[in-house]
Structure formats: C-alpha cells, structure tokens
Design goal:
About 30% of the residues lie in helices and about 20% in strands. It is of the alpha+beta class. It has one domain: Beta-lactamase (3-Layer(aba) Sandwich), CATH 3.40.710.10. The strands form 4 sheets. Strands 2-1-15-14-13-12-11-10 form an 8-stranded antiparallel beta sheet, sandwiched between helices. The protein has a 3-stranded antiparallel beta sheet with strand order 5-9-6. A two-stranded antiparallel sheet has the order 3-4. β10 and β11 form a beta hairpin. The chain starts with a helix and ends in a 9-residue tail after the last helix.
Length: about 375
C-alpha cells in the first residue's frame, strides 16, 4: 500500500498551482468566517462525527487561520481529533528524514555526494550517493513487494535492520544509480540508517533533538511498533472491513520501519514547523535553501516533474502525500505565498474524495479576496 502513495503523489503534485507566530487570529473577518463555514460544510459532508476523521491546518501569513479536527482519533473511547492530536504521517515523514540528513550536512559531517558503498560495502550500493537516495534516483529495489509482503514471517515485526540485511543480499536494482527515477521507500530507510551511522545516535533520538525540537515540534516522534513509545493524544488508524465497519489497523507487521514513514505529528506541531521553514531557523540559510531546490527531474505523461528534499516541487509549490494502512496525508506549501495547507487523516479515504481539491480552491479564493488587506501588501 505504501507504494500506492507515489501514484497519488504524481497525480496531486501539480493541482493548482516577518510573520507573527500566533496560532489564532485576534479577530475574524467576514471572509474568514465564511471560509470556515465552507470548510466545515465540506469536511462534515465527508466525515461523520462518530467516524475516524481528519485534522486540517491552513496557515497564512504566519497565522493558523484554520486549525480543526473532524471525527474521532479513538473510536473505542469516543475521543475527538483536535489540533493537538498526533496522527501518523506515512510518506509525508520523508521530509523529516531528509531534514535529519541535512542536519548532518549542515554540521559538516556529511556531503550529499558521499558514497553509500563506502559506508556499507554491498554491491547493491554501487555508485549510489546520498543525493541519489534523497531524490529517488538510486534505483534500489522496493523492499515491500519482492520479499517482505510475500516471504516474511508476519508474526514478526519488520524493522530497519531487516531491510539493511535484505539489501546485503544484493537484490536486483531497478536501474543504474542516477540513470532513472523511481519513488523509493527503500532509499529513505537507508537514509535513516545513514543518520545513525554518521551521528552515532538512534535515528528517532537524533531526529527528535536535531529536527523536531529545533522546529518547535514538542510532541512529534518517530514510532517503531517493535519498541513502542507513548504517543500523546494518539490517533489510531482505521479501515473499513468487508461489512463496512471501521476496524483498527495499527498492528501491521511493517509498522516497525522508520524513515520512509512512521512520524506522528499534530496540526499544532506542524504549524510550528511550517513557521520554522519559512523563517529558516532550523539550519543555516545555505542548508535551508537546499530543501526546496529541485535535484531530480522525471517525466509523467510527457511533463517534467521535480523532486527536492522530501518534497515534489514546482517553481511555486512544494507538495507531498502519504498513504499507509488507515492513514492518508497531504501537505502543500506555496513558495511564493505565505500559505500552507495540510490534511492528516486516520482513515484511508482522502484520495477517494475531493477534499484536497476543494479545500485548496476555497483557501485560494479567500487569499485572493483578502490579499490587499494584509498589512497593505498584495500577496
């Protein structure tokens, strides 16, 4: 299912194309009240009050103009989703893995051109660099379909070390490094191993100190089912069974893998992170400038697509989606407007709906009608 997210990524990347840190505007304009009403109507039509649901962030000009939860994070205990609810990010997690790598680059401990084979002398890493892993040009085989979904003992939880052991057997690459493009979950697991190897710290501990805390993400964590930690206000993941009943699906045997997924975060924390990216306060400005800089290009239906550091990018937007068992996520940053939209779901229906397209349209209309009123500036 995780590989399904790349299809979604490619389909959605190009859908339309000096701040305060207040999480709530002091006053609500008529336009903002109308936007909220329209958004509520949109989400409430999709999500029942007793169903797993979604958290929504709309950040504009340094303010959280909309931060809301719809539905429940915990069906058994009737707990609602709020802006504090920590939800599983699936492949949106890749941006944080990339930032962990960039942290090492910023400290001078790693170069994007460093050879992976010099660290692990496996034939499968021949000619692969850090950059190849980050921008999906490594050619590494997918770990899910050829082995772990088919042959793994599903009574055991798969962890990152198991993926590295599998890579040591030299699974056939999809293409020679740098000679193609293929969205790669495997590559981001290798990057998590790389962070551990270079830093000498466990990957989630390093990310917590060097990315999450620096970005103001106080309750954000990586989660490994084999060594579970307590997730504050955790949203459980749900899918419908054959009878149409919502069933919890958090116990999947591959939920011990980190790097390509496994981040839990909230709307409140993601808002702080969004501000930190816009203020370039996590790393040096030079390193920050790498985050949204395209480093690989591929074609879809004859059109160029670009990938940066855990983001698909155009000249005006940066987008990523995620899909896993009982989880759908979507993030979109406008690079030429102080605007970010994020939707996190603890169910797998986001990409079957028109929530993304319609939310984007409503928010852009709001921005258009209010642009001339923001500190007298036209945005």
């Amino acid at each position: 299912m995780k590989n399904l997210s790349i299809v979604i990524v490619l389909a959605i990347f190009f859908v339309s194309c000096n701040s305060s840190s207040d999480k709530k505007p002091e006053t609500k304009t008529i336009e903002l009240e109308q936007l909220e009403a329209n958004i509520d109507s949109l989400f409430n039509a999709e999500i029942g009050i007793n169903e797993p649901g979604a958290a929504l962030l709309v950040s504009y000009d340094g303010k959280m103009i909309i931060g809301k939860g719809y539905g429940l994070r915990d069906l058994e205990n009737n707990k609602p989703i709020t802006t504090n609810t920590n939800m599983r990010m699936a492949s949106v997690s890749k941006q944080f893995t990339a930032l962990s790598v960039l942290s090492l680059v910023d400290k001078g401990l790693l170069s994007l051109n460093d050879s992976i084979k010099k660290i692990w002398p496996y034939p499968v890493f021949e000619n692969i660099t850090v950059q190849h892993l980050l921008n999906h040009t490594s050619g590494l085989a997918d770990y899910e379909a050829p082995y772990f979904l088919k042959d793994w003992d599903k009574s055991k939880i798969v962890e990152n070390k198991d993926i590295l052991d599998w890579l040591s057997t030299n699974p056939k690459p999809i293409f020679e490094a740098g000679k193609g493009w293929e969205y790669s979950n495997t590559a981001y697991i290798v990057l998590a191993h790389l962070v551990e190897k270079v830093s000498g710290k466990e990957f989630p501990i390093y990310a917590k100190k060097n990315v999450f805390e620096k970005a103001g993400m106080k309750e954000t964590n990586y989660y490994n089912l084999a060594n579970p930690i307590k997730i504050k206000e955790r949203a459980y993941c749900y899918e419908k069974d054959s009878l149409g009943n919502w069933k919890k699906v958090d116990g999947h045997f591959m939920n011990g893998i980190m790097g390509d997924g496994a981040v839990y975060t909230s709307v409140d924390d993601y808002f702080e992170y969004d501000l930190a990216l816009r203020k370039k306060s996590i790393f040096s400005e030079e390193t920050h400038d790498l985050i949204f800089k395209p480093s690989s290009t591929h074609q879809v239906n004859g059109e160029d697509r670009h990938y940066a550091m855990g983001w698909g990018v155009t000249d005006s937007t940066a987008v990523h989606t995620g899909g896993w068992f009982g989880t759908n996520t979507f993030t979109k940053r406008y690079l030429k407007k102080p605007l970010t939209i994020a939707i996190f779901m603890n169910r797998n229906t986001l990409f079957e709906s028109e929530l993304i397209k319609k939310t984007d349209s409503l928010v852009l209309e709001y921005v258009k009608t209010t642009a001339n009123r923001v500190d007298g500036r036209e945005l």
